[in-house]
Amino acid sequence: MLVSHNIKAQLKSFLIEIGELSLFTGRYFREAFKRPFEFKELLRQCYHMGNRSLLLVGITGFIIGLVLTLQTRPTLMEFGAVSWMPSMVSISIVREIGPIITALVCAGRIGSGIGAELGSMRVTEQIDAMEVSGTNPFKYLVVTRVLAVTLMLPLLVIIGDVIAIFGSYLVENVKGNVSFMLYFNQVFDALEFGDIIPATIKSFFFGLAIGIVGCFKGYNCEKGTEGVGKAANSAVVFTSLLLFIIDFIAVFVTDIFYDL
Amino acid sequence: MKENKIISNREIVLKIKNLYKSFGNNHVLNGFNMHLYKGENLVIMGKSGSGKSVMIKCLVGLLEADSGTISVMHNDITKLDQEALDILRADIGFLFQGSALYDSMTVRENLEFPLRRHTKKFGKHIDTNELVVEALENVGLANAIDLMPSELSGGMKRRVALARTLILQPKIILYDEPTSGLDPITAKEITILMQDVQKKYGTSSLIITHDVDCARAISDRMILLIDGIDYAAGTYDELSNSTDPKIKAFFKH
Question: Which residues from A are below 8 Å from B when comparing CB atoms?
Answer without folding.
Answer: 117, 120-121, 124-126, 128-136
